[in-house]
Amino acid sequence: MSSVNNFNLFYENELKHLLTPLEEDRKKIKKYGIAGFFFLGTAILLFIISAASHNSGTAVIAFILILSALILLIVFGNKKKSFAAGFKETIVRKIIHFIDPSLTYTPHLSISKTDYLNSGLFVEQPDRYSGDDYIEGTHEKTFFCFSELHTERKVSSGKSTHWETIFRGLFFIADFNKNFSGRTYVWSERNPQINFLTKLFSSFAWNLEKVRLESVEFEKRFIVYSSDQVEARYILTPSFMERIVRLQQLMGEGTSLSFVNTNIHVAVPIKDELFEPAIFSVNDYNRLGDFYNTINIVFDIIDELKLNQRLWNKE
Amino acid sequence: MSPLIIILLLVIFLIPVFIYNNLIRKKNAVDNAFFSIDVVLKKRYDLIPQLVETVKGYMQHERGLLTSVTELRQKVMQDNLSANERVKLDNQINTVLQQIFVSFENYPQLKSSENFLRLQGAINETEEQLAASRRFYNAAVNDYHNAIETFPSSLIASAAGMGRKEYFNIPDSEKSASAININ
Q1: Which residues on B lie below 8 Å from A238 (Cβ)?
Q2: Residue B176 to residue A238, Cβ atoms within 8 A
C-alpha cells in the first residue's frame, strides 16, 4: 500500500496530465447541462405567464423550449454517462492499481444481491437494488471484495410513490480468519433497520439469541444476535471488540458487521456516490484524494481487524 | 364465584409459575454453558497427546513438563471425578500447558515442522473457544444472579432454594485471548 505522500507524487506525475483533456470534455458537457436546465426553467416560467395571460403564442414558445430542454438534457445525460465511464477507466483504474496492482476493478459490477441478503445486515428485501465499482483482490492472506451499493424500498401513500434508501455506501466482504459455522450479527445501534420487529423476528423466526457482551463501550454501540452464544464470543474476543469499536469510530456510527458463511461482511454508510467524476465542479487533487482514501478504507478494515493474523487453523 | 374472581385467582396462581419457569430456564442456561466448557475441555485433552508426541523430539529440557501434563490428562479423563477435583486438575493442566507454550519460543526449529504448525493452530483455536465458553458461562451466571436477586423473582428463588453460582476466574492472559505464536 502506498502512503499519502506517494499519492501526492503519483498525482503530479501520472494523473495530472490525464486530467487536462478530461477537463476539456467536462466543460463541454457542463454547457449542455446548464443550457438544458436554463431552457427548462425559462419554459416553466413562460407556461406560468401564458396561463395567467391566456396568451397561446407564449405557450407555443414554452412548448418548443421544453422540447429543446428535453433534447439537451438527454444529450447531457448520455455524455455524462460516457464521460464517467471513460473517467473510471483512465483515472479510477489507475488510482486502484497504484494502491495495489493486483486488484481487479469492474466499474459496472457490484456485490450480488444474494451476498447482500445473505449477509443479514439488512433484513428487508429491497425493491430496487443498484451498485457499481466492484473491486476484488487479496491483501496479504485475506481475500476481499467490495462495491458501492444503493438499496431502496418503495413507499406508496395514496396514489404517490417514492423511494426510501435502505442502505447506501460501501459494502465489503472478506474471508474471516477463524472457522465458524453459525451466524453472528453485529448491528449498529444507530441502524434504523434494526427496530423492534427485527429483534422479535431474530428470536423467533430466525432462531437467533441476543448476545450480551462484557464491553460497555461495545454494548453501547452495537446490538449482537447470534445462532451460537459460544461461537459469537469466539469471534468477538475482548480485543476484537475493541478493534470493532475503533473501526466504527473511523468509519461512522452506522457501520455494521456480520459473520456468516465463513465471511465477514461490513456495511459502511456513505452518502455520496463513490468514484463518480464531478461535472459541475473540477476533478482536482482533492476529489481524487477522496477516491484514494475510500479504497484505503478497505485496507484499514483488514488491518484494523487484523484479518491477516492467521493463528488458527484457517489458511 | 364471579368470573372476575376466577380470572384474578388464575393470575395470582400463574404469575409465580411464570417466574419459577423463567428462573429454571436461567438455571438451565448456566448448566448448558457449563457443558459447553466441558466440550471444549475434552477437545483440549485430546490435543495433549498429539502435542507431546510432536514436540518431545525437540524439547529435551522440558521432559518433566511433558510427562506431568500427560499424567494430569490421564487423571482428568477418569469418569469418577467430582466437579471440584476436575476444576483443580484442569487448573494444573492450564499451568503446565502455559509453561510448555512459553518454552516453544526457545525452539525456533519447531516453526519448520508442518505437524507443529497445524497443532499450534488447533491449540489456539481450542484456547479461544475455551475462553469464549467461559465468558458465556459467566454471562449466563450473571443473568441468573440478576433473576434470583431482583424482586419479585427473588421471593420464589429463595423459596425454591436457588442460590448463587460461582463465576469462572478468567485469567488475564485469556481475556486478551492468548494465542501461541512463535513467528
Answers
A1: 175-177
A2: yes
Q: Spell out the per-residue pLDDT of chain A, length 315, in tens.
A: 456 778 889 999 999 899 989 999 999 999 999 999 999 999 888 888 888 887 778 888 888 988 999 999 999 999 999 999 999 999 999 999 999 999 999 999 999 999 999 998 888 889 999 999 999 999 888 899 999 999 999 998 888 899 999 999 999 999 998 889 999 999 988 766 666 666 667 667 778 888 999 888 999 999 999 999 999 999 998 888 988 998 888 888 889 999 998 899 999 998 888 888 988 888 888 888 888 888 888 888 888 888 887 766 665
Give the closest-approach CA distance of A179 to chain B in angstroms.
9
ipTM of the complex in this document: 0.74
Q: Which residues from chain A sit within 8 angstroms of residue B177, using beta carbons?
A: 237-240
What contacts B81, CB < 8 A, 6 or more positions away?
B75, B89
Smallest Cβ distance to A311: which of B132, B176, B179?
A: B179
Residue from A131, A212, A124 nearest A173 by CA: A131
**Alpha-carbon gap, residue B128 to A177, rounded angstroms:** 13
Paired with A147 in beta bridges are A171
User: Largest Cα–Cα distance in chain B?
Assistant: 86
Q: Which long-range contacts (CB under 8 A, 24 or more apart) does B138-143 make?
A: B138/B167, B138/B168, B138/B170, B139/A212, B139/A213, B139/A214, B139/A229, B139/B33, B140/B26, B140/B29, B140/B30, B140/B32, B140/B33, B141/B30, B141/B33, B141/B165, B141/B166, B141/B167, B142/B167, B143/A212, B143/B26, B143/B29
Q: B122-141 in b/e burial notation, b at 16+ Cβ within 10 A?
A: bbbbbbbbbbbbbbbbbbbb
* Grid coordinates of B34: 457449563
DSSP-derived letter for residue A214 is: S
Q: Which amino acid is at A304?
A: E
The C-alpha of B176 sits at a distance from chain A's nearest C-alpha, in angstroms, of 6
